[in-house]
Structures are given as structure tokens and as C-alpha cells.
Design a protein that fits this description.
Blueprint lengths: L4 H7 L6 E2 L6 H14 L9 E7 L1 H15 L7 H12 L3 E8 H10 L7 H22 L3 E2 L9 H7 L6 E12 L20
Antiparallel strand pairs: 1-5, 2-3, 3-5, 4-5
Helix pairs in contact: 2-6, 3-4
Length: 199
């Protein structure tokens, strides 16, 4: 790891303008994702998160598929802005798809009925932690990434194209690539309004 943990958190931003230019070997990308999936915590050690890494033609196919699904619901006269976004994401090196396995969640609800209402919430929290861990890991290696949510619009086509189990619920998509433009300045609300300390 070439960065301090806190610096990596600070440097992780939403990068939309990225390229397919090579940054690290694909094996390193896979290692980052697998490390997150193995070690990021989950309620009751439920390990509900599932991930698909799309590289090369499969990455391109996902954004072509997404574009096609959006064309079905966005009026043609309003599609130019949407197409610009699709082109940005398609220009990325790869995409990570994040899922949660609903079968595991339902099993826990049945096994621990007292907490049944909480398991879907905890599942979402687990997914968010995985997204953050992968995002920060990719940033450390020199990638820029952003988090997108074209689910459930693309769910059925994704399921068919990549043979995704019916119990896996798509939660987010993370296109990533070599940054070609810096993100804008980020404003921060005063910490004293957001953090309370009692000693």
C-alpha cells in the first residue's frame, strides 16, 4: 500500500472522466475486490455481498446494454445527456457490479425472527462498506471511479447476459479507469455540526 489509510479516504472521489488506459494488471484489480469481499464485515458474518468484475468486452457490453435499456424509457429528444453519461462510463477500463444475496438475507430472517426487520438494512450497510472498500482500493492503485445505480432498470438483462443467480439483487455499479480530469472542489459542512464528543 503506497498511501496512508486516511489519505486514501480523502483522495477517494467521484471520477467521471476516465479512460481505458492501463493502470495495473487485471490480477491486481481482482485481488482488490476479492480482498474486500473476504474481509469487509457483515452482520452475523452473513457474507451477503456478491460481486461481478467486468473487464474488456464485458465492460463495454454492460454499458451498451444499459444504454439500450435507457433508450426504452427516456424520450429520444431528451436522450443526449443520458448518452453523454453512457459514453463516459463506457470509456472506463472496467466496471464492478455489486449484488446482495437475498436468499441469505431471508434465511437469516427466518433463523433470527427477532431481528427480521433489520437484516435487509444490515445487508445494505454491508453492501455500502464493500463499495467503499473497493472504491478506496482502486483509488490507491491510481484508478478513478464513480458509483452508479441503474438498477433495477438493467437487472433482467444483466441476469441473462452473465448468468446471475435469481437471488442476487443488483445494488450498484462502479465504472473505473485512469482519471483524465480532476473532480471539482468539494465543500464540507462544519464538523462541529456533524460530530459530538462527550468526555
Amino acid at each position: 500500500m503506497s498511501k496512508d489509510f486516511f489519505q486514501a479516504i480523502a483522495d477517494r472521489r467521484s471520477y467521471y472522466a476516465v479512460s481505458k488506459e492501463h493502470v495495473v494488471e487485471d490480477e491486481r484489480i481482482i485481488e482488490i475486490v476479492e480482498h474486500a469481499v473476504k474481509y469487509v464485515p457483515s452482520a452475523f458474518n452473513s457474507q451477503t455481498t456478491r460481486v461481478i468484475i467486468l473487464l474488456g468486452e464485458n465492460h463495454d457490453k454492460f454499458w451498451e446494454l444499459t444504454t439500450g435499456e435507457l433508450k426504452k424509457i427516456v424520450p429520444a429528444e431528451n436522450f443526449a445527456g443520458t448518452q453523454e453519461k453512457m459514453d463516459l462510463f463506457g470509456n472506463a477500463y472496467g466496471t464492478v457490479l455489486f449484488f446482495e444475496d437475498e436468499e441469505v438475507v431471508k434465511g437469516l430472517q427466518e433463523q433470527f425472527a427477532l431481528y427480521a426487520d433489520n437484516f435487509p438494512i444490515w445487508s445494505e450497510q454491508t453492501s455500502g462498506m464493500h463499495q467503499f472498500a473497493v472504491w478506496t482500493g482502486l483509488e490507491i492503485e491510481g484508478f478513478g471511479a464513480s458509483l452508479q445505480h441503474y438498477n433495477p432498470i438493467v437487472d433482467e438483462e444483466v441476469r441473462k447476459e452473465w448468468n446471475v443467480p435469481s437471488t442476487w439483487k443488483l445494488r450498484a455499479q462502479m465504472p473505473f479507469g485512469k482519471p483524465v480530469a480532476s473532480p471539482g472542489d468539494k465543500d464540507f459542512k462544519p464538523l462541529e455540526e456533524r460530530v459530538k464528543v462527550y468526555k
